[in-house]
Design a protein that fits this description.
By secondary structure, this protein is α+β, with helices and mostly antiparallel strands. The chain has one domain. The chain contains four helices and three strands. Strands 1-3-2 form a three-stranded antiparallel beta sheet. A hairpin with a 2-residue loop joins strand 2 and strand 3. Helix 3 runs antiparallel to helix 4. The chain starts with a strand and ends with a helix.
Length: 85
Amino acid sequence: MATKYLRYADLVERQIINNRTTLQRWIRDYAFPAGVLLGPNTRAWRADQIEAWLAARAAETESADAEVKPDAPAAEREAANALAS
């Protein structure tokens, strides 16, 4: 089976990413796949790596939400939500 690659426009179309700055920050800070260079100005991402990253991110968010008690102070809930996003 052939590997499917996604270009930047595909990531935007699927609403995974909104802009290049966020993409760079996710690669740097959140272990988003860096992709592969197909040419001097062309980068693409393996679809399976993107799906795996999204699944891992969703799992992290769910576990972080479960750790915050509903009756926790508002500041604590906001801090936990900021870490999850």
